[in-house]
Amino acid sequence: MSGQRIVLGDDGSEGADLAWRWLMLHRWPGWSVDVVTASDTLHAGLIVGNDTALGAWNPPNKRVLAPQSAIGGIRHLTKPGDPRVVLDEWLRLGVVSMEHDEVLLNRAAFVPASGFEEKAFYLGQNLHDHAAAIAHNVVAQQAPMLERCVHYDDVDGEAIASLAQAAEAWGMKALRAVNTKVLDAGAASDSTLGKWRMNFGLYFYAEPMEGPVSTPEAHGDAA
Length: 223
Hints:
The chain is of the alpha/beta class.
């Protein structure tokens, strides 16, 4: 398949079900998904090598794409004795790392450390959604959307690192809480309001100040 590819390891567990639900609650235009199941690691008493090719198969419980995900296609694949096929993809993207034979999650969400296409997707989505929320609040007659920030001038440069860490820690708590709320709500039913797309995000930005400092009255604000 052309375009970007998501690889999901599927062992039929509750964790795999949760990962699939998370995927289906997001939009992935231009992406396809490979659902990979690793079969027995032993074959005729021997460990099957990693050179065994992936093969298409017809699992008893196929994963079904949600229309709102905008994923272009799905393949169900199996590979005897190679559960590392998904791990290798996550290692390539920087989602996880290895330390003393342990797999360490690098981020609380899917944020690849490398991969221009993945970053470009979120760049376009988040710039659009943030600007759209601001425009809605300026021109719309409906209830305003959430769009708030805390900004300060004259912050001690030595405090920036700790402020960034605090913002990430508290912000991730908010993201996880909203994510849990969405998962608890489940897929859209036959509501009269139909299906919607949502985006709740956060960011932290800091840079050295240039020129004269601001007046005391403008040193800090929460908007």
